[in-house]
Amino acid sequence: MPVGIFRVCLVVITAIVNHPLLFPKENVTVPENSEEIIQKMKEREETLRLEQLRLEQEIAEQEAAQKTLEKAAEVVEESKEEKVRWDMWTALSMVIFLLIELWRQDFQEGIWQDTGGEEDDMAVLGKAFEGVAFPDKAVLASFYEKRILGTTGDMARMREMVEGFADDLLEALRSVCNRDADMEVEDCMGVGSMYENWRVRKPFVCDLIVPFAPPEPYCFRSQTWCSGDSFPPDEQGYGTIKVCRADEDVTGCICDKTKLGEDMLCLLHSQANTTRPSSEMEDLLCFKNTQYLDADQVMKWFQIAVTKAWNRISHKYEFDLSFSLLDSPGALKIKFRSGKSIAFNLTPVVQYENSDVYFISHFPRSGLAADLPSSTHWFLTFAVYERRFIQLVSKMLPANACHVSCLQILSFLHGKQCSLTGPSGLTNYHLKTVMLHLLQARPSQDWAPEKLEARLQDMLKFLEKCLHEKKLYHFFIGNGKVPAELGFPIIFQRAEPLNLFRPFVLRRDVYRKTVDTFHEMLRNTSALINEYTVHIPLAHTNGIHKESL
Q1: What is the pLDDT of residues 416-472, one digit of tens each?
Q2: What does UniProt give as the signal peptide span (predicted)?
Q3: CATH topology for 121-247+281-534?
Q4: Are strands 358-360 and 218-224 parallel, antiparallel or unpaired?
Q5: Where are the alpha helices (DSSP H) in 177-259?
Protein backbone atom coordinates (compact mmCIF):
# COMPACT_ATOMS: atom_id res chain seq x y z
CA MET A 1 0.00 0.00 0.00
CA PRO A 2 2.62 2.58 0.77
CA VAL A 3 4.54 1.53 -2.29
CA GLY A 4 1.52 2.04 -4.44
CA ILE A 5 0.87 5.47 -3.03
CA PHE A 6 4.53 6.40 -3.72
CA ARG A 7 4.31 5.30 -7.31
CA VAL A 8 1.13 7.34 -7.87
CA CYS A 9 2.75 10.45 -6.43
CA LEU A 10 5.83 9.99 -8.63
CA VAL A 11 3.70 9.80 -11.78
CA VAL A 12 1.80 12.97 -10.79
CA ILE A 13 5.01 14.91 -10.10
CA THR A 14 6.52 13.83 -13.41
CA ALA A 15 3.45 14.95 -15.31
CA ILE A 16 3.44 18.31 -13.64
CA VAL A 17 7.12 18.93 -14.31
CA ASN A 18 6.88 18.03 -17.97
CA HIS A 19 3.79 20.15 -18.61
CA PRO A 20 4.58 22.85 -21.33
CA LEU A 21 2.97 25.73 -19.47
CA LEU A 22 5.55 25.59 -16.75
CA PHE A 23 8.41 26.93 -19.09
CA PRO A 24 8.67 30.47 -20.43
CA LYS A 25 8.22 31.02 -24.10
CA GLU A 26 11.79 32.22 -24.73
CA ASN A 27 13.21 29.05 -23.41
CA VAL A 28 11.88 27.46 -26.50
CA THR A 29 14.21 29.74 -28.59
CA VAL A 30 17.38 28.91 -26.69
CA PRO A 31 18.52 26.42 -29.24
CA GLU A 32 17.88 29.00 -31.99
CA ASN A 33 20.14 31.87 -30.44
CA SER A 34 23.03 29.76 -29.18
CA GLU A 35 25.33 30.69 -32.06
CA GLU A 36 24.84 34.45 -31.44
CA ILE A 37 25.60 33.96 -27.76
CA ILE A 38 28.72 31.99 -28.56
CA GLN A 39 29.86 34.72 -31.01
CA LYS A 40 29.38 37.41 -28.35
CA MET A 41 31.26 35.34 -25.83
CA LYS A 42 34.14 34.95 -28.29
CA GLU A 43 34.19 38.70 -28.93
CA ARG A 44 34.15 39.35 -25.22
CA GLU A 45 36.96 36.84 -24.76
CA GLU A 46 38.95 38.57 -27.53
CA THR A 47 38.36 41.95 -25.93
CA LEU A 48 39.51 40.65 -22.59
CA ARG A 49 42.59 39.12 -24.19
CA LEU A 50 43.49 42.38 -25.90
CA GLU A 51 42.95 44.27 -22.64
CA GLN A 52 45.18 41.76 -20.90
CA LEU A 53 47.89 42.24 -23.54
CA ARG A 54 47.63 46.02 -23.17
CA LEU A 55 47.94 45.79 -19.41
CA GLU A 56 50.88 43.44 -19.69
CA GLN A 57 52.57 45.88 -22.12
CA GLU A 58 52.01 48.82 -19.77
CA ILE A 59 53.37 46.81 -16.87
CA ALA A 60 56.45 45.92 -18.96
CA GLU A 61 56.96 49.59 -19.93
CA GLN A 62 56.64 50.67 -16.31
CA GLU A 63 59.15 48.07 -15.25
CA ALA A 64 61.57 49.22 -18.02
CA ALA A 65 61.12 52.87 -16.98
CA GLN A 66 61.73 51.92 -13.37
CA LYS A 67 64.91 50.10 -14.33
CA THR A 68 66.03 53.14 -16.41
CA LEU A 69 65.40 55.46 -13.45
CA GLU A 70 67.30 53.16 -11.16
CA LYS A 71 70.24 53.05 -13.59
CA ALA A 72 70.18 56.87 -13.96
CA ALA A 73 70.13 57.25 -10.21
CA GLU A 74 73.09 54.91 -9.96
CA VAL A 75 74.97 56.93 -12.61
CA VAL A 76 74.18 60.22 -10.84
CA GLU A 77 75.28 58.75 -7.53
CA GLU A 78 78.50 57.50 -9.08
CA SER A 79 79.14 60.90 -10.73
CA LYS A 80 78.50 62.62 -7.41
CA GLU A 81 80.97 60.35 -5.72
CA GLU A 82 83.52 60.94 -8.49
CA LYS A 83 82.91 64.72 -8.30
CA VAL A 84 83.34 64.66 -4.55
CA ARG A 85 86.55 62.72 -4.95
CA TRP A 86 87.69 65.11 -7.72
CA ASP A 87 86.80 68.20 -5.66
CA MET A 88 88.67 66.74 -2.72
CA TRP A 89 91.79 66.10 -4.81
CA THR A 90 91.50 69.53 -6.46
CA ALA A 91 91.21 71.27 -3.10
CA LEU A 92 94.10 69.24 -1.72
CA SER A 93 96.23 70.08 -4.78
CA MET A 94 95.42 73.79 -4.44
CA VAL A 95 96.36 73.77 -0.76
CA ILE A 96 99.66 72.03 -1.53
CA PHE A 97 100.35 74.49 -4.36
CA LEU A 98 99.62 77.51 -2.16
CA LEU A 99 101.86 76.17 0.61
CA ILE A 100 104.68 75.63 -1.88
CA GLU A 101 104.18 79.12 -3.33
CA LEU A 102 104.19 80.74 0.11
CA TRP A 103 107.33 78.84 1.06
CA ARG A 104 108.99 79.84 -2.20
CA GLN A 105 108.15 83.52 -1.71
CA ASP A 106 109.37 83.49 1.89
CA PHE A 107 112.56 81.73 0.82
CA GLN A 108 113.18 84.17 -2.03
CA GLU A 109 112.45 87.20 0.13
CA GLY A 110 114.88 85.87 2.70
CA ILE A 111 117.70 85.69 0.16
CA TRP A 112 118.27 89.44 -0.08
CA GLN A 113 117.69 89.85 3.65
CA ASP A 114 120.61 87.52 4.36
CA THR A 115 123.47 89.42 5.90
CA GLY A 116 126.11 86.91 4.86
CA GLY A 117 129.40 87.63 3.17
CA GLU A 118 130.22 88.46 -0.40
CA GLU A 119 130.54 84.79 -1.35
CA ASP A 120 126.82 84.34 -0.75
CA ASP A 121 126.12 87.38 -2.90
CA MET A 122 128.23 86.04 -5.76
CA ALA A 123 126.15 82.84 -5.69
CA VAL A 124 123.05 84.71 -6.91
CA LEU A 125 124.78 86.12 -10.00
CA GLY A 126 122.80 85.30 -13.13
CA LYS A 127 123.71 84.75 -16.71
CA ALA A 128 123.50 88.47 -17.39
CA PHE A 129 126.81 89.02 -15.54
CA GLU A 130 128.75 86.38 -17.46
CA GLY A 131 131.53 88.00 -19.48
CA VAL A 132 130.85 91.53 -18.11
CA ALA A 133 134.00 93.54 -17.41
CA PHE A 134 133.05 95.57 -14.34
CA PRO A 135 135.06 98.75 -13.56
CA ASP A 136 137.38 98.54 -10.57
CA LYS A 137 137.42 100.78 -7.51
CA ALA A 138 139.83 103.33 -8.93
CA VAL A 139 137.82 103.84 -12.11
CA LEU A 140 134.56 104.13 -10.18
CA ALA A 141 136.09 106.64 -7.75
CA SER A 142 137.43 108.76 -10.58
CA PHE A 143 134.10 108.62 -12.42
CA TYR A 144 132.15 109.62 -9.33
CA GLU A 145 134.44 112.54 -8.56
CA LYS A 146 134.48 113.87 -12.14
CA ARG A 147 130.93 113.28 -13.29
CA ILE A 148 128.69 113.25 -10.22
CA LEU A 149 130.27 114.98 -7.24
CA GLY A 150 130.42 118.34 -8.98
CA THR A 151 126.64 118.52 -9.36
CA THR A 152 125.98 118.69 -5.61
CA GLY A 153 126.62 122.43 -5.39
CA ASP A 154 124.36 123.14 -8.37
CA MET A 155 121.50 121.20 -6.74
CA ALA A 156 121.83 123.11 -3.46
CA ARG A 157 121.65 126.52 -5.18
CA MET A 158 118.68 125.46 -7.29
CA ARG A 159 116.77 124.11 -4.27
CA GLU A 160 117.23 127.35 -2.39
CA MET A 161 116.04 129.44 -5.31
CA VAL A 162 112.98 127.25 -6.09
CA GLU A 163 111.87 126.97 -2.45
CA GLY A 164 112.01 130.73 -1.96
CA PHE A 165 109.97 131.39 -5.09
CA ALA A 166 107.44 128.63 -4.27
CA ASP A 167 106.82 130.10 -0.81
CA ASP A 168 106.18 133.53 -2.34
CA LEU A 169 103.87 132.02 -4.98
CA LEU A 170 101.81 130.10 -2.42
CA GLU A 171 101.48 133.15 -0.21
CA ALA A 172 100.08 135.05 -3.20
CA LEU A 173 97.79 132.09 -3.95
CA ARG A 174 96.31 132.28 -0.45
CA SER A 175 95.64 135.99 -0.89
CA VAL A 176 93.67 135.53 -4.13
CA CYS A 177 91.57 132.63 -2.81
CA ASN A 178 88.29 132.99 -0.95
CA ARG A 179 88.99 131.73 2.57
CA ASP A 180 85.32 130.82 3.10
CA ALA A 181 84.82 128.85 -0.13
CA ASP A 182 88.17 127.80 -1.63
CA MET A 183 90.57 125.11 -0.52
CA GLU A 184 93.11 126.05 2.16
CA VAL A 185 96.72 125.67 0.96
CA GLU A 186 99.50 124.78 3.41
CA ASP A 187 103.29 125.16 3.12
CA CYS A 188 105.12 123.11 0.52
CA MET A 189 107.63 120.31 1.22
CA GLY A 190 110.54 119.12 -0.91
CA VAL A 191 110.71 115.41 -1.78
CA GLY A 192 112.45 113.14 -4.25
CA SER A 193 115.97 112.85 -5.62
CA MET A 194 116.79 116.56 -5.42
CA TYR A 195 116.16 116.59 -1.67
CA GLU A 196 117.76 113.19 -1.07
CA ASN A 197 120.94 114.36 -2.85
CA TRP A 198 121.17 111.64 -5.49
CA ARG A 199 119.90 113.40 -8.61
CA VAL A 200 122.55 113.14 -11.36
CA ARG A 201 120.96 113.73 -14.77
CA LYS A 202 120.07 117.15 -16.03
CA PRO A 203 117.88 119.06 -16.24
CA PHE A 204 117.47 119.18 -12.47
CA VAL A 205 113.82 119.25 -11.40
CA CYS A 206 112.68 120.02 -7.84
CA ASP A 207 109.59 118.14 -6.63
CA LEU A 208 107.46 120.04 -4.12
CA ILE A 209 104.17 118.82 -2.66
CA VAL A 210 101.52 121.19 -1.37
CA PRO A 211 98.95 119.83 1.14
CA PHE A 212 95.50 121.39 0.95
CA ALA A 213 92.30 121.05 2.99
CA PRO A 214 88.63 121.96 2.43
CA PRO A 215 87.06 125.08 3.94
CA GLU A 216 85.10 124.86 7.17
CA PRO A 217 82.84 123.11 8.09
CA TYR A 218 84.04 120.37 5.71
CA CYS A 219 86.79 117.81 6.09
CA PHE A 220 88.40 114.99 4.15
CA ARG A 221 87.79 111.34 5.05
CA SER A 222 90.07 108.98 3.17
CA GLN A 223 89.84 105.28 2.39
CA THR A 224 92.74 103.13 1.16
CA TRP A 225 92.89 99.71 -0.47
CA CYS A 226 94.18 98.19 2.80
CA SER A 227 91.50 99.69 5.05
CA GLY A 228 89.44 96.49 5.08
CA ASP A 229 87.24 96.77 2.01
CA SER A 230 88.11 94.63 -1.00
CA PHE A 231 89.91 96.42 -3.83
CA PRO A 232 90.72 94.80 -7.20
CA PRO A 233 94.42 94.16 -7.90
CA ASP A 234 94.69 97.10 -10.32
CA GLU A 235 93.55 99.50 -7.58
CA GLN A 236 96.12 98.46 -4.96
CA GLY A 237 98.22 101.44 -3.95
CA TYR A 238 95.30 103.83 -4.47
CA GLY A 239 92.62 105.36 -2.30
CA THR A 240 89.58 107.61 -2.38
CA ILE A 241 88.85 110.87 -0.56
CA LYS A 242 85.35 111.75 0.60
CA VAL A 243 84.31 115.31 1.36
CA CYS A 244 82.12 115.40 4.48
CA ARG A 245 80.93 117.85 7.04
CA ALA A 246 83.06 117.89 10.16
CA ASP A 247 80.02 117.06 12.35
CA GLU A 248 78.92 114.18 10.11
CA ASP A 249 79.46 110.67 11.50
CA VAL A 250 79.78 108.55 8.38
CA THR A 251 80.72 105.42 10.32
CA GLY A 252 78.08 105.54 13.03
CA CYS A 253 74.92 105.58 10.89
CA ILE A 254 73.84 103.25 8.09
CA CYS A 255 71.67 105.80 6.29
CA ASP A 256 74.62 106.74 4.08
CA LYS A 257 75.33 103.09 3.23
CA THR A 258 71.77 101.74 2.81
CA LYS A 259 69.08 103.04 0.48
CA LEU A 260 66.10 103.95 2.65
CA GLY A 261 62.54 103.72 1.42
CA GLU A 262 60.50 106.80 0.51
CA ASP A 263 58.46 106.47 3.69
CA MET A 264 61.51 106.04 5.95
CA LEU A 265 63.47 108.82 7.63
CA CYS A 266 66.76 108.68 9.51
CA LEU A 267 66.22 109.99 13.03
CA LEU A 268 69.89 111.04 13.35
CA HIS A 269 70.25 112.96 10.11
CA SER A 270 67.74 115.26 8.54
CA GLN A 271 67.06 115.39 4.83
CA ALA A 272 68.97 118.66 4.58
CA ASN A 273 72.14 117.11 6.00
CA THR A 274 72.14 113.89 3.97
CA THR A 275 71.31 115.36 0.59
CA ARG A 276 73.39 118.23 -0.72
CA PRO A 277 72.94 120.14 -3.95
CA SER A 278 75.16 118.91 -6.77
CA SER A 279 76.56 122.39 -7.38
CA GLU A 280 77.76 122.64 -3.77
CA MET A 281 79.77 119.43 -4.04
CA GLU A 282 81.20 120.44 -7.41
CA ASP A 283 82.37 123.70 -5.81
CA LEU A 284 84.26 121.48 -3.37
CA LEU A 285 86.01 119.82 -6.36
CA CYS A 286 84.01 116.59 -6.13
CA PHE A 287 83.13 114.28 -8.97
CA LYS A 288 79.69 114.94 -10.44
CA ASN A 289 76.81 113.82 -8.19
CA THR A 290 79.21 112.30 -5.62
CA GLN A 291 81.08 113.35 -2.49
CA TYR A 292 84.44 112.02 -3.74
CA LEU A 293 87.26 114.42 -4.49
CA ASP A 294 88.04 114.56 -8.21
CA ALA A 295 91.72 114.80 -9.22
CA ASP A 296 90.84 116.45 -12.54
CA GLN A 297 88.80 119.13 -10.76
CA VAL A 298 91.69 119.70 -8.36
CA MET A 299 94.06 120.08 -11.32
CA LYS A 300 91.89 122.76 -12.94
CA TRP A 301 91.43 124.62 -9.66
CA PHE A 302 95.14 124.55 -8.84
CA GLN A 303 96.24 125.74 -12.27
CA ILE A 304 93.77 128.63 -12.18
CA ALA A 305 94.83 129.57 -8.65
CA VAL A 306 98.54 129.48 -9.54
CA THR A 307 97.91 131.63 -12.62
CA LYS A 308 96.07 134.24 -10.51
CA ALA A 309 98.83 134.19 -7.90
CA TRP A 310 101.56 134.70 -10.52
CA ASN A 311 99.68 137.63 -12.05
CA ARG A 312 99.72 139.29 -8.65
CA ILE A 313 103.48 138.96 -8.04
CA SER A 314 104.93 138.80 -11.57
CA HIS A 315 106.05 142.44 -11.42
CA LYS A 316 108.54 141.52 -8.68
CA TYR A 317 110.54 139.09 -10.84
CA GLU A 318 112.56 139.41 -14.02
CA PHE A 319 111.50 136.10 -15.53
CA ASP A 320 108.40 134.41 -16.92
CA LEU A 321 106.47 131.50 -15.39
CA SER A 322 104.51 128.95 -17.44
CA PHE A 323 103.08 125.44 -17.21
CA SER A 324 105.44 123.01 -18.94
CA LEU A 325 103.14 119.94 -19.08
CA LEU A 326 99.43 120.05 -19.82
CA ASP A 327 98.58 116.75 -18.04
CA SER A 328 100.34 117.70 -14.80
CA PRO A 329 98.76 120.37 -12.61
CA GLY A 330 101.94 121.84 -11.15
CA ALA A 331 104.68 121.24 -13.73
CA LEU A 332 106.09 124.80 -13.89
CA LYS A 333 109.00 126.31 -15.75
CA ILE A 334 110.85 129.55 -14.99
CA LYS A 335 112.25 131.20 -18.12
CA PHE A 336 114.97 133.83 -17.67
CA ARG A 337 115.68 136.54 -20.21
CA SER A 338 119.09 135.01 -20.84
CA GLY A 339 117.39 131.91 -22.27
CA LYS A 340 118.08 129.63 -19.30
CA SER A 341 115.21 127.86 -17.59
CA ILE A 342 114.45 126.02 -14.34
CA ALA A 343 111.74 123.38 -14.08
CA PHE A 344 110.01 122.33 -10.88
CA ASN A 345 106.84 120.48 -9.88
CA LEU A 346 104.38 121.98 -7.44
CA THR A 347 101.84 119.22 -6.86
CA PRO A 348 98.72 119.41 -4.66
CA VAL A 349 98.31 116.54 -2.17
CA VAL A 350 95.92 115.47 0.59
CA GLN A 351 97.24 114.26 3.95
CA TYR A 352 96.26 110.74 5.03
CA GLU A 353 94.83 111.12 8.54
CA ASN A 354 97.57 112.48 10.85
CA SER A 355 100.54 110.91 9.08
CA ASP A 356 103.05 112.04 6.46
CA VAL A 357 101.54 109.74 3.85
CA TYR A 358 99.84 111.78 1.15
CA PHE A 359 97.33 111.24 -1.62
CA ILE A 360 98.84 112.80 -4.73
CA SER A 361 96.61 114.09 -7.51
CA HIS A 362 98.91 113.28 -10.42
CA PHE A 363 101.89 110.97 -10.24
CA PRO A 364 104.84 111.45 -12.65
CA ARG A 365 104.27 109.23 -15.66
CA SER A 366 106.67 106.56 -16.87
CA GLY A 367 106.74 103.72 -19.35
CA LEU A 368 105.49 101.36 -16.65
CA ALA A 369 102.94 103.57 -14.92
CA ALA A 370 99.31 102.66 -15.55
CA ASP A 371 96.46 105.11 -15.83
CA LEU A 372 94.39 105.79 -12.74
CA PRO A 373 91.26 103.61 -12.45
CA SER A 374 89.23 106.84 -12.33
CA SER A 375 89.66 110.50 -11.45
CA THR A 376 88.37 109.77 -7.93
CA HIS A 377 91.26 107.36 -7.24
CA TRP A 378 94.38 108.94 -5.77
CA PHE A 379 97.83 107.42 -5.63
CA LEU A 380 99.57 107.29 -2.25
CA THR A 381 103.11 108.66 -1.94
CA PHE A 382 105.47 107.78 0.91
CA ALA A 383 108.17 110.22 -0.25
CA VAL A 384 108.42 112.00 3.11
CA TYR A 385 109.06 108.74 4.98
CA GLU A 386 111.55 107.63 2.33
CA ARG A 387 113.55 110.81 2.85
CA ARG A 388 113.42 110.38 6.63
CA PHE A 389 114.51 106.75 6.40
CA ILE A 390 117.56 107.66 4.32
CA GLN A 391 118.46 110.41 6.79
CA LEU A 392 117.99 108.06 9.77
CA VAL A 393 120.11 105.26 8.29
CA SER A 394 122.81 107.67 7.14
CA LYS A 395 123.49 108.63 10.75
CA MET A 396 124.37 105.01 11.57
CA LEU A 397 126.59 104.41 8.53
CA PRO A 398 130.35 105.04 8.31
CA ALA A 399 131.57 108.48 7.25
CA ASN A 400 131.23 109.09 3.51
CA ALA A 401 129.15 105.93 3.11
CA CYS A 402 128.69 104.69 -0.43
CA HIS A 403 124.91 104.08 -0.49
CA VAL A 404 124.05 107.37 -2.21
CA SER A 405 127.05 107.00 -4.54
CA CYS A 406 125.82 103.56 -5.66
CA LEU A 407 122.35 104.91 -6.40
CA GLN A 408 123.78 107.88 -8.32
CA ILE A 409 126.03 105.70 -10.48
CA LEU A 410 123.22 103.23 -11.19
CA SER A 411 120.82 106.06 -12.05
CA PHE A 412 123.39 107.59 -14.39
CA LEU A 413 124.07 104.27 -16.16
CA HIS A 414 120.39 103.55 -16.66
CA GLY A 415 119.60 107.05 -17.86
CA LYS A 416 122.51 107.02 -20.29
CA GLN A 417 121.47 103.62 -21.67
CA CYS A 418 117.86 104.76 -22.14
CA SER A 419 119.09 107.79 -24.08
CA LEU A 420 120.83 105.35 -26.45
CA THR A 421 118.24 102.59 -26.83
CA GLY A 422 115.00 104.27 -25.79
CA PRO A 423 112.98 104.30 -22.55
CA SER A 424 112.27 101.16 -20.56
CA GLY A 425 109.92 100.14 -17.76
CA LEU A 426 112.49 100.90 -15.06
CA THR A 427 112.36 104.25 -13.29
CA ASN A 428 114.57 106.01 -10.79
CA TYR A 429 112.00 105.14 -8.13
CA HIS A 430 112.59 101.43 -8.76
CA LEU A 431 116.33 101.98 -8.39
CA LYS A 432 115.82 103.85 -5.13
CA THR A 433 113.58 101.04 -3.85
CA VAL A 434 116.41 98.57 -4.51
CA MET A 435 118.78 100.73 -2.45
CA LEU A 436 116.27 101.00 0.42
CA HIS A 437 115.89 97.21 0.59
CA LEU A 438 119.65 96.69 0.67
CA LEU A 439 120.13 99.43 3.28
CA GLN A 440 117.82 97.51 5.57
CA ALA A 441 119.29 94.10 4.76
CA ARG A 442 123.02 94.78 5.09
CA PRO A 443 124.94 95.82 8.21
CA SER A 444 126.19 99.38 8.40
CA GLN A 445 129.90 98.50 8.00
CA ASP A 446 129.20 97.06 4.53
CA TRP A 447 128.54 100.59 3.27
CA ALA A 448 132.03 101.94 3.91
CA PRO A 449 133.35 104.09 1.02
CA GLU A 450 135.98 101.53 -0.03
CA LYS A 451 133.18 98.98 -0.69
CA LEU A 452 131.58 101.02 -3.45
CA GLU A 453 132.31 98.41 -6.14
CA ALA A 454 130.87 95.50 -4.12
CA ARG A 455 127.71 97.35 -3.13
CA LEU A 456 127.11 98.55 -6.71
CA GLN A 457 127.32 94.95 -7.85
CA ASP A 458 124.87 93.99 -5.08
CA MET A 459 122.35 96.49 -6.39
CA LEU A 460 122.72 95.18 -9.94
CA LYS A 461 122.33 91.57 -8.76
CA PHE A 462 119.28 92.39 -6.70
CA LEU A 463 117.73 94.26 -9.61
CA GLU A 464 118.46 91.36 -11.96
CA LYS A 465 116.76 88.92 -9.56
CA CYS A 466 113.70 91.18 -9.27
CA LEU A 467 113.43 91.49 -13.05
CA HIS A 468 113.74 87.74 -13.46
CA GLU A 469 110.94 87.12 -10.94
CA LYS A 470 108.91 90.19 -11.98
CA LYS A 471 108.74 91.09 -8.30
CA LEU A 472 109.97 94.26 -6.64
CA TYR A 473 108.07 94.99 -3.46
CA HIS A 474 107.36 98.48 -2.21
CA PHE A 475 109.75 99.22 0.62
CA PHE A 476 107.20 100.45 3.17
CA ILE A 477 103.97 98.62 2.31
CA GLY A 478 103.92 95.26 4.05
CA ASN A 479 107.35 95.81 5.68
CA GLY A 480 107.13 95.01 9.37
CA LYS A 481 110.76 96.00 9.97
CA VAL A 482 110.33 99.74 9.44
CA PRO A 483 112.12 101.59 12.29
CA ALA A 484 109.70 102.75 14.96
CA GLU A 485 111.45 106.15 15.06
CA LEU A 486 109.81 107.06 11.77
CA GLY A 487 106.29 106.86 13.21
CA PHE A 488 105.10 105.02 10.11
CA PRO A 489 101.34 104.10 10.09
CA ILE A 490 100.86 100.52 11.24
CA ILE A 491 98.03 99.91 8.75
CA PHE A 492 100.48 99.97 5.84
CA GLN A 493 102.99 97.76 7.64
CA ARG A 494 100.33 95.09 8.11
CA ALA A 495 99.09 95.31 4.52
CA GLU A 496 99.96 92.80 1.85
CA PRO A 497 103.25 93.66 0.07
CA LEU A 498 102.73 95.74 -3.06
CA ASN A 499 104.58 94.47 -6.13
CA LEU A 500 105.89 97.42 -8.14
CA PHE A 501 106.69 95.08 -11.05
CA ARG A 502 103.13 93.76 -11.38
CA PRO A 503 102.62 95.65 -14.70
CA PHE A 504 105.43 93.53 -16.18
CA VAL A 505 103.16 90.49 -15.83
CA LEU A 506 100.44 92.21 -17.85
CA ARG A 507 102.66 93.92 -20.45
CA ARG A 508 105.12 91.46 -21.89
CA ASP A 509 106.38 93.89 -24.54
CA VAL A 510 107.44 96.41 -21.89
CA TYR A 511 109.01 93.65 -19.82
CA ARG A 512 111.03 92.35 -22.77
CA LYS A 513 112.23 95.87 -23.59
CA THR A 514 113.18 96.50 -19.95
CA VAL A 515 115.17 93.27 -19.65
CA ASP A 516 116.98 93.93 -22.94
CA THR A 517 117.85 97.47 -21.81
CA PHE A 518 119.16 96.17 -18.48
CA HIS A 519 121.37 93.56 -20.15
CA GLU A 520 122.64 96.12 -22.63
CA MET A 521 123.45 98.48 -19.76
CA LEU A 522 125.50 95.76 -18.07
CA ARG A 523 127.49 95.13 -21.23
CA ASN A 524 128.08 98.85 -21.72
CA THR A 525 128.92 99.66 -18.08
CA SER A 526 132.67 99.95 -18.60
CA ALA A 527 132.29 101.94 -21.81
CA LEU A 528 129.76 104.36 -20.28
CA ILE A 529 131.93 104.98 -17.22
CA ASN A 530 135.24 105.24 -19.11
CA GLU A 531 133.68 107.85 -21.37
CA TYR A 532 133.44 110.23 -18.41
CA THR A 533 136.59 109.14 -16.55
CA VAL A 534 139.95 110.89 -16.74
CA HIS A 535 143.02 108.80 -17.42
CA ILE A 536 144.36 107.15 -14.27
CA PRO A 537 148.08 106.37 -14.16
CA LEU A 538 148.90 102.71 -13.59
CA ALA A 539 151.04 103.46 -10.54
CA HIS A 540 148.18 105.39 -8.97
CA THR A 541 145.83 102.49 -9.62
CA ASN A 542 148.22 100.01 -8.04
CA GLY A 543 148.60 102.26 -5.02
CA ILE A 544 144.85 102.35 -4.51
CA HIS A 545 144.67 98.57 -4.70
CA LYS A 546 147.45 98.21 -2.11
CA GLU A 547 145.67 100.57 0.27
CA SER A 548 142.43 98.66 -0.09
CA LEU A 549 144.27 95.42 0.72
Answers
A1: 999 999 999 999 999 999 999 999 999 999 999 999 999 999 999 999 999 999 999
A2: 1-15
A3: Beta Polymerase; domain 2 (3.30.460)
A4: unpaired
A5: 193-196
